[in-house]
Amino acid sequence: MKESTWRWSNDHSQWALKLVSNEGKADANLYLNGLKYQKMFGFGACFNELGWRAFNHLLAREGEKLLAELFSPAGDGAKFNFCRLPIGANDYSFNWYSLDEVPGDYSLQYFSLERDSQALIPYIKKALHYNPELKLFASPWSPPAWMKNPPVYNWGKLIWTEENLSAYAAYLVKFIKAYAEQNISIHQLHVQNEPVANQKFPSCTWTGEELRDFIRDYLGPALSASGLDTEIWLGTINAPGCDFNRLIFDKWATEDYDFFAHTVLADEEALRYISGVSYQWGGKIAMQRTFESWYPRIRLMQSENECGFGDNTWEYARYVWTMLKHYIGNGAESYLYWNFMLEPEGVSTWGDPQNAMVTIDPVKGKAVFNPDYFVMKHFSACIQRDAIRLGASGTFAGNALAFQNPDRSLVLELYNPFKQIYTVAFHDEAEKYYFALEPQSVNSIILK
């Protein structure tokens, strides 16, 4: 048998070790079918101001220990290597703001990172200290309010004039350059967070045609002329929208794959500027069709984990595993959680309680790793950058993902949804392995 390492987690044990057997009685089977898919890029979460506030409740030594667990590529931590940050305010900012608050400043004379220097920049630099190879993508939740109609952060649309569109493209390019001056490289720019979200928090709605035209005629040329190597991604798309009154997805015909990705990518001039498409929330509906149509010319990723309800349960963590399976199984090269760390209940600036991988108690000054953290760690700690997703078949394929790392090790990610031990027989060339999966457990098995 090959050398093996098997880690598993459920509501009773987390990141526990188990031995692989070469004999047993199988409930299901799994084998590699010879197909190869996307090259993996990374796992991580979003740097938000309220996360930085939570982090600062920790004593210095405990804080550094937490950062090492999250980001260090050495040791037995999560090894997160790809993360997100907002351009201006999002729903986990202290309050709403942009990087240029002077109405009519189309020359961006008053553009400033002063606000970001208070939380986001030190937060990111702390992470970069432990992993200098950490990659970042940025996205705006809202343009500066004076560029919108109506001039507010929490809903509305970009004003569609030549002067305004040119200034907004320049604003996004200036953000990347300003962060570079802080020794923080922005690897990807995703044009708009959730373009169908007209929210209580910073947001801005776009149609597919508007995104196509802005990328083709303004942002693409501006970024190309800047000499920066930052990639443009179409995202982060959250369509189709949901009718919360009837609690159904009722906009498939107008806000599915054809409304955004197909509309934008079918334009050859827009396409030449775009490296990938990112999806989150309702956007998962369009993931498969985008993969079928555009991979490998266009790369794909999941850009934000669905955020839960602030109670951080194992029931929800198991749902997160199924979302990892759905997105990665349909071509995603990366999967990002939402908040790294929050105070208890994880209440947003607009009052919504949401999950976090780590809860930090402001009174006790202690960090607690939540169930979602262990699900994410099972992937991020085991699947190396540039790993290749392998095709898997058999009766357990619907609860499995397989990868070959650059070091040639084989990684199996397995989920047992049942309330009893469930044994999977894995056929690997001439060898057979039996994995007795613990009840309702997530599992990572590395074979070398």
CATH hierarchy, class of the largest domain: Alpha Beta
Structural class: alpha/beta
The amount of helix comes to 25-40%
Our measurement of the CA-to-CA distance between the termini, rounded to an integer number of angstroms, reads 9 Å
Low-confidence stretches: 242-253
Descriptive key words:
448 residues, alpha/beta, Immunoglobulin-like, TIM Barrel, 2 domains, nine-stranded mixed beta sheet, eight-stranded parallel beta sheet, 27% helix, 27% strand, globular
Structure explained in plain terms:
With 448 residues, the protein is α/β, with parallel strands linked by helices. The chain has 2 domains: 4-37 and 391-447, Golgi alpha-mannosidase II (Immunoglobulin-like, Sandwich); 41-382, TIM Barrel, CATH 3.20.20. Helix content is 27%, strand content 27%. The chain has 11 helices and 22 strands. It has helices at 49-55, 60-71, 120-130, 162-181, 208-226, 252-255, 258-265, 268-271, 284-294, 314-329, 371-380, and strands spanning 4-9, 16-18, 28-39, 42-46, 82-87, 135-140, 148-149, 157-158, 188-190, 231-237, 274-280, 299-304, 332-339, 341-342, 358-361, 366-369, 388-393, 400-404, 410-415, 422-428, 431-437, 442-447. The strands form 4 sheets. The protein has a 9-stranded mixed beta sheet with strand order 2-1-22-19-18-17-3-20-21, covered by helices on one side. Strands 4-13-12-11-10-9-6-5 form an 8-stranded parallel beta sheet. Strands 14-15-16 form a 3-stranded mixed beta sheet. Strand 7 (148-149) and strand 8 (157-158) form a beta hairpin. Helix 2 packs across helix 3 (120-130) and helix 4 (162-181) crosses helix 5 (208-226). The radius of gyration is 22 Å and the shape is globular. The model is unreliable at 242-253 (pLDDT under 50).
